[in-house]
Amino acid sequence: MFEQAMARIAGRFSRVEPRATARAYLLGLLSHAERKNCWHLAEQAGHARPGPMQRLLRCARWDADAVRDDIRAYAVEHLGAQGAVLIVDETGFVKKGRASAGVQRQYTGTAGRIENSQVGVFLAYATSRGRTLIDRRLYLPEQSWCSDPGRRQAAGIPETMQFQTKPRLAWEMIATALDAGVETPWVTGDEAYGQDPQLRAALEARGTGYVMAVACSTRVRINSGRTTMRADTVAERLPASAWQRHSAGNGAKGPRYYDWAWIHIGTDGHRHLLVRRNRTSGELAFYLCWSPAAVTLAELVRVAGVRWSVEECFQAAKGQVGLDHYQVRNWTSWHRHITLAMLALAFLTALAADAAPDRPIDPHHPARGSDPITLTVPEIRRLLVVALIPPAVTAARLLHWSTWRRRHQATARRSHYRQRSTDQLTG
């Protein structure tokens, strides 16, 4: 299956050298390498220097967007099933300095606070067979980057790239997937995307249903009237009979049960406010929902629950295939590394889907205690390290790379000391 996955993208590389390097890069992402940047991946591949890996990301001739298209088709082929959901979300990449494309001090959920970081907006594809990332956009802040030509040029940002909001980037990825023939009746996302009326309107224009999280202060129109009411006020006035218990999907400890209520809003018969209530704390969450045809409450709950699977994608991508291990500053290099990491994740997810039993497991009647769970992405990668990427690093090779790294670090240290001395003399 690995060779089949490589064959899908082989035509995107016009020369054999970058094609072979891309294969080694992917194997490195799947390996047990401590850090999955060019230095460590080159060492894992048996190269004498990181040059080939760095050229693959920086200046080799290949189209990362075309490979992205291959990843999307590969994911649909292996994971496709009825009721597929597209999920939009963002994740942060904490960075030092100010030279990396798009970096600035901004809030990132990765750190849980404002940090110097890059933010990537991603699109995930989720079905009953699995979930994986199928598209990506690097968010380019308006003031600190879009209005600074010198900074843009230094980071290799194309002149055609202008400021776009995160919901707009999300819509571009959704529209690209729909135009490519991805059959999905639903899109979901958190408040950052659900609060954007233009994104919701664009989905409705395409006839694609959505279940989008919104703030408690969101105003909705009740009973086709002219007056609007805050979502949390609507929830407070619901009778006890309006709440129903449903599972939002299986978590690590079993089904995730909440109390749910839905209220018809607006003049459209297929438009609802969905409210989720935590059965222990009473905490409320709100969703605006629209569908081109009538649906059940259970279906809206299912889609709302699927949104959390994008967090599993981020966790697997960062923990298993080095999505955030890159050490690049250039715009093109960022997109290329992220794309190859997405391919590695899609490959592992496809393996897990093909290895899963044909009969779904009933969470209410689990297997015997002696039966193992189905193969997971982390477990498959552990097996691949032994079967596909056998250790072939000799003591001499380890010493070579140790010397190379320390020489490179000595050069960098001298450069930093020289610059600091110059700054102190001129300050």
TrEMBL record:
SUPFAM superfamilies according to UniProt: Ribonuclease H-like
Record-annotated Transposase IS701-like DDE domain positions: 12-223
Superkingdom, taxonomy of origin: Bacteria
Pfam family, one: DDE_5
UniProt cross-references to NCBIfam families, sorted A to Z: transpos_IS701
Descriptive protein name: IS701 family transposase
Species this protein is from: Streptomyces glaucosporus
